[in-house]
Amino acid sequence: MSDAPYDFTIETLGPCKVKSPIQLSNVEGDFIANYVSDDDYVRYRLDAYIDQVVGPCKQSELLEKAGPRENIFFNPSHVHAAIVTCGGLCPGLNDVIRALVRCLWHRYGVRRITGIRFGFKGLLPEYGFETLPLTPELVDDCHKTGGSILGTSRGGGDRVVEIADAIEKLNLNMVFIIGGDGTQRGSLEIAEEIEKRGLKISVVGIPKTVDNDLSFIQKSFGFDTAVVKAAESVAAAHMEAHSQINGIGLVKLMGRESGFIATHTAIASHEANFVLIPEVPFELDGPKGFLHYLEDRLRKRHHAVIVVAEGAGQDLLEGEGGTDDSGNKKLADIGVFLRDKMAAYFKSIGMHINLKYIDPSYQIRSAPAAPIDSIYCERLGNNAVHAAMCGKTKLIIGLVHNKFVHLPIKVVTHKRNYVDPEGSLWRDCLDATSQPILMVNDKEAFLRNSLNRSKAKK
Amino acid sequence: MSDAPYDFTIETLGPCKVKSPIQLSNVEGDFIANYVSDDDYVRYRLDAYIDQVVGPCKQSELLEKAGPRENIFFNPSHVHAAIVTCGGLCPGLNDVIRALVRCLWHRYGVRRITGIRFGFKGLLPEYGFETLPLTPELVDDCHKTGGSILGTSRGGGDRVVEIADAIEKLNLNMVFIIGGDGTQRGSLEIAEEIEKRGLKISVVGIPKTVDNDLSFIQKSFGFDTAVVKAAESVAAAHMEAHSQINGIGLVKLMGRESGFIATHTAIASHEANFVLIPEVPFELDGPKGFLHYLEDRLRKRHHAVIVVAEGAGQDLLEGEGGTDDSGNKKLADIGVFLRDKMAAYFKSIGMHINLKYIDPSYQIRSAPAAPIDSIYCERLGNNAVHAAMCGKTKLIIGLVHNKFVHLPIKVVTHKRNYVDPEGSLWRDCLDATSQPILMVNDKEAFLRNSLNRSKAKK
Amino acid sequence: MSDAPYDFTIETLGPCKVKSPIQLSNVEGDFIANYVSDDDYVRYRLDAYIDQVVGPCKQSELLEKAGPRENIFFNPSHVHAAIVTCGGLCPGLNDVIRALVRCLWHRYGVRRITGIRFGFKGLLPEYGFETLPLTPELVDDCHKTGGSILGTSRGGGDRVVEIADAIEKLNLNMVFIIGGDGTQRGSLEIAEEIEKRGLKISVVGIPKTVDNDLSFIQKSFGFDTAVVKAAESVAAAHMEAHSQINGIGLVKLMGRESGFIATHTAIASHEANFVLIPEVPFELDGPKGFLHYLEDRLRKRHHAVIVVAEGAGQDLLEGEGGTDDSGNKKLADIGVFLRDKMAAYFKSIGMHINLKYIDPSYQIRSAPAAPIDSIYCERLGNNAVHAAMCGKTKLIIGLVHNKFVHLPIKVVTHKRNYVDPEGSLWRDCLDATSQPILMVNDKEAFLRNSLNRSKAKK
Amino acid sequence: MSDAPYDFTIETLGPCKVKSPIQLSNVEGDFIANYVSDDDYVRYRLDAYIDQVVGPCKQSELLEKAGPRENIFFNPSHVHAAIVTCGGLCPGLNDVIRALVRCLWHRYGVRRITGIRFGFKGLLPEYGFETLPLTPELVDDCHKTGGSILGTSRGGGDRVVEIADAIEKLNLNMVFIIGGDGTQRGSLEIAEEIEKRGLKISVVGIPKTVDNDLSFIQKSFGFDTAVVKAAESVAAAHMEAHSQINGIGLVKLMGRESGFIATHTAIASHEANFVLIPEVPFELDGPKGFLHYLEDRLRKRHHAVIVVAEGAGQDLLEGEGGTDDSGNKKLADIGVFLRDKMAAYFKSIGMHINLKYIDPSYQIRSAPAAPIDSIYCERLGNNAVHAAMCGKTKLIIGLVHNKFVHLPIKVVTHKRNYVDPEGSLWRDCLDATSQPILMVNDKEAFLRNSLNRSKAKK
């Protein structure tokens, strides 16, 4: 990765002059958890070269460690906090909500915590949703079910002025916004609008993307759970394919821009023969196209399992359908498209197939978090509260190199995380599937174009 | 952590002069996975201070990246590889075996792969176990079941000469040893004995500890699966405790030296009220002892769930029972001890309790790997093969800062990984349980002793 | 139900003159399992009226008990048995295959057991499938995975002469046919063709219908597993619906003619608000149509979960698509139809909804059997072998009043099993959903028509 | 079975003169569920002989069908109902509570429903437990968790006068008692005490026994769930045994008097090599004792899995420990006993074994109900309410020949249900394990004694 330097400096609302009530210590050896200092940083860059001398570390190149500080910005008894969940469902939403509420209430003694219903729309007057007062009792068991107890919706984040109005009217001091890329871009604009009005309100994001496509953070919450559930669908496809004459199991998995779920699932299950992801273009027709390789596989092994990420092969689809409420480009349905193309192809060559198409999307998104995700969500939530209490703002909580850190929203929403087609993850996936490295007919031309495209992007 | 500097240099059997057959590339943009260079390093230390100048990086302070090299040491057609699994069961053993076999066979074309039965004992003549020839067909579905298809056993790793004899007799070029702390110490001695004999044999370890107590590596395989299963036991204990008059659910979890499973499980499930781990001593009796706090909880809430790591409170137990076959100190059974102490205490104060004791150990250890662990095992196995083919030896494959790296066995077995009682993990666990920070009567004296103990250790 | 009397007499190939090798006993109290006598019958009719005198029981009105007989028809050392699985996947197929093989092999000493590949097509020359010799080793772990290790396909059962030719050519003495309604009708014709040729070949069916729509038998294998899996989909739909503004979760479940899966799933999960099954017609439009009731529910509760059996509301769909390979009428897709109708309706009234459509079909059909189904399959298989060894033919093994019995194929395929809209199962389902009893506008007219239709059927 | 005739007549509090509010119908063809008539009966005896003439059916020999009646005894608006759960946990308790509350509230309009806390102890003054008012809201999601939301305890059912006092004081009209054998015997005595006082109070039992040892009913709720969970433990034992040198997995399952769970689990999993149940005595020592057969198995196959029901082999254990709070004889622990005996035996013959003992008891009892059990519980609860509303009393709701019926408590508690060692279930279990039919040394003497014992019983 040849990243340009990022500015990781975190903004704050002002100096921290309130003594934290959470009763940790700064003494080593007293068995009391320690406060984190604002001087604790983590390097972002891990790569190193022998004999290299590294110049003086600038703050802007280092990541601030998350965690409770000895001095905080807000007086807990004055705090009114709000929580909102935006975008599609993702395993672990309730775990995060629960952690936020419990940490605010038990650790800091905050008693006014307000749940915003159904995403940003819960702050827009025309919907008329009432807010939901949150207490530890109310959230006690919510992590055992999927979904979001607050409700969620797409979009609305661009109506910055109205949302800032609502936040001001509610007299909030801190807003926790759980949502993806688009949502966090909205968060930033809202924070800027608030700042413009001279209000001291922390805006802290908890990044949510089941696709795991946020850059900088090592893994997004809910991702592990998604892979667990996706592996069940691939197992089903495998069973169907194995039990039929020329059985084909086609599973469409989430992954609008990045094929992480598809790739991980294929490695975990070892039952997919083809994985199609957005990062690796492919052609359908011709002697080196996907359909031909699939035919080949069927002739040799009589069954095949294909995993396709929803964002794969978008260049193959003509029609497009605008954008959804979150402003995301609507993808044409590659799953249905592939299904129909395969049916047509094998009909055209007179080969009988048994094609089963599985689209488990909502069953994955709505699942309760697996324990590993629950732990992650709990810790994200706690650290988000610690950050907000210190008046830090316009940041998200992330896990980088296994450390919880503060990341500026501006930096995080700047680029996406992709499966590197030449990296070790995709290499291990190809080993698991035995599929061809590239399914294109004129490889030379393809690589030339690919290079040009990537230049044009920069 | 104030670690002394470690020497991370990896030993090799000699220069790599064979062209790798795995057909990766060094070209960026050709969609072909790249070789890893021996000059690719990862920093071990992440902590950073502003304006700090870092002197020239020495190789010994950097971690070598794992992965396939362009040039390798062994000629694949001459390779005879062996795989052995040692110690107790751990979810993912079969996944690692499977990855080793498939990578050797499909990537490098190695055709002689031998499974050693039942740990190091499979190499000792008096047991008379035959070896098991391994092929991709044989291991194809083995990852779907728990256990080890090779069988495993404790101990035997100290019989260095006989094991080296057996390895020599089998004409092996590389030995993959999957096992824990004690096992890897044995691996090192075996590798040294082999070296003394002038043999060119790679010894590569894959670290296995369900307790997650190996230092340097960020997480051991099987750990996530263990937490998933352990959380089921805590849920059962919670149900029992809730449904009875003064119901107490006591769950003993694995964790001889480190309480990671107990701590993670408590955070994941949020249903434990007390977590007892080796890292945090506690007293049973007296007004600030565990039993009193438990009584308190029962009087207020009428039920309680306790999670105890098997290595917790060992100072409270008199009798000890020597060592097991692996040379590990045998722990007295804290679960049964606590159960009996609680029963006696509440009888003595005339309080009726309903105590249910759950010890899920084998149900956890024998579980098949959860998908996340399957992926991890697959990648560990692949990287172990790449290292061995390059003639690297006396190393284990580890995951550090989310990168697969080579770690010298000598360094890894040097110290253990502990839950830091003053770190964020334990802090989040205390938040999840609401238990007292310390359950000791004379805190001053305790802390003085604790300080002395920790000084004495150094 | 006012059933006409059925003739339950079982046909046999001839007198049983061979002493069974299975070494059971006829002595009570010797702890050795007892043979079943051909005089052991079970009443089919359970209804009783006080003071009613029941005339002499005719054999034709009684059900013959399944189980091992002291004397059998075939000499086990001469037996060549074949097993074939037909139609769609169903949890438990492999369990049945496994039980057949093990009982033939271990209990009776049969050594020639042949698996027919991919349904009846495996017996048709143009497909050219080789048969698969079956042994206990080969089937040992097959019950742990879903699907059918033999493969399956639809149709072909009407090519009676060719199939009989193939059976004759293979020198089979007994054929075990695992399949549904249509398959068993084929089995009967094949058995008759065989009989016409003067061959002594037992044809024994194991009834397979995941829909549970075979009459006489109390439950078909795989049904319980299907409900377990279906309940997971309903839970997902519920989570999605709850977490969205006017969230609607629509789940299509299997059930071509009968709504058993939908009904049981709704009672089990208690999360469905509407269950639509083939047995209870409904209208979409009008003030008492489904859409109006759904709108009502949304206005009051803001979310709704709908479970629809695939055969529901077929009268509402215009286009039809002929028949599938099994000769089953192809159903138009009620799930997609309803989804589109709902979208159009709520658009037309300007009400924003969030509709998530879940079709878990293949994930249900391909699941491995839950333990309860495994037990059932095991016992079906054993009893099928016992029946075939006695030369009984043209029968299926069924569970009636919790007893395993022999049922003539002719009788079983004569009618289907339906959810009785006025019985206790549907009553309990309505209690679980709180949906209206009938969603039709002109109830009087509807009931008149309904009455006429049911008259016409008779 | 040569049962003496039972009197199945159900007692009632008086004539039913109140029109039921539940709005069913008696018209066939109107799509409205039908009332059940008091003249609807089901035969208990299914066995039939050809040409047998059956004399006039007496009411006392027939089972009354459960379900809603057109006329009921109680005026719903006057009803005060109570629910109590007794004895150990069992999957499905909350499902039954939920169904009772919902049917009372929604179907009949009853508004006073009281939960008794912690079993009969909740009615005894010295415990001072407050009652819990129950509403549909409160029970809405309770079926998703295991345990009992009311709490449960053993014993207390013999304190008939005090319990009747408490019932009288609460002004109850109907009491639903969920509990086992001992509990229902208590229910009967309580009902008789109430009757003696001239009070019109329905006492309706819902039989609960995870062991499935209640006679007459075909299966108790929670049993299927128990088998599902038990199969997981056997799978773990199998993995451990397979992966060790002379690995032995020993699993203790529930089953005080009857081995149904052990037997079903062994058939479902096919991984047990020995199943030991109370119904089939065995000897440990000698050439035909269990230990010898086990040694044999280890010498041949090197691993073994043993499933033992807690009530098995009680004659082998000397010490006994009185009775528990429910008045059940306390069993000595056969699991620990066997574990120690095996260890000693193999030590004595110098054979190294690896023995893993798994006791999953509470993890099974506390599990939430599997969907099939949820359905069963729902229907048991509904039918219990229908019975109570009609003033029927001293009965339990049972499932017999797949019909829900009323059974007099007196009859049901009269004998237990056992695994018949000569029946088809045990036969299929022996086929699954391949264990010897009898593990006794002097078979002749054993059978003589066995015969005498069984005579003495009669």
UniProtKB/TrEMBL annotation, chains A, B, C, D:
Binding site for substrate: 209-211, 254-256, 310, 362-365
TM helices/strands, residue ranges: none
E.C. no: 2.7.1.11
Binding site for Mg(2+): 181
Pathway where this protein functions: Carbohydrate degradation; glycolysis; D-glyceraldehyde 3-phosphate and glycerone phosphate from D-glucose: step 3/4
Gene Ontology MF term list: 6-phosphofructokinase activity; ATP binding; diphosphate-fructose-6-phosphate 1-phosphotransferase activity; metal ion binding
GO cellular component, one term: cytoplasm
Residue positions binding ATP: 88, 154-155, 180-183
Keyword Magnesium assigned: yes
Primary localization class, coarse: cytoplasm
Phosphofructokinase domain ranges (all copies): 81-387
Enzymatic reactions: beta-D-fructose 6-phosphate + ATP = beta-D-fructose 1,6-bisphosphate + ADP + H(+); beta-D-fructose 6-phosphate + diphosphate = beta-D-fructose 1,6-bisphosphate + phosphate + H(+)
Residue numbers marked as site, Important for substrate specificity: 182
Cited NCBIfam families: PRK06830.1
Annotated function: Catalyzes the phosphorylation of D-fructose 6-phosphate, the first committing step of glycolysis. Uses inorganic phosphate (PPi) as phosphoryl donor instead of ATP like common ATP-dependent phosphofructokinases (ATP-PFKs), which renders the reaction reversible, and can thus function both in glycolysis and gluconeogenesis. Consistently, PPi-PFK can replace the enzymes of both the forward (ATP-PFK) and reverse (fructose-bisphosphatase (FBPase)) reactions. Catalyzes the phosphorylation of D-fructose 6-phosphate to fructose 1,6-bisphosphate by ATP, the first committing step of glycolysis.
Subunit structure: Homodimer.
Family label: Belongs to the phosphofructokinase type A (PFKA) family. PPi-dependent PFK group II subfamily. Atypical ATP-dependent clade 'X' sub-subfamily.
Name of the featured protein: ATP-dependent 6-phosphofructokinase
Species name: Teretinema zuelzerae
Phylogenetic classification of the source organism: Bacteria, Pseudomonadati, Spirochaetota, Spirochaetia, Spirochaetales
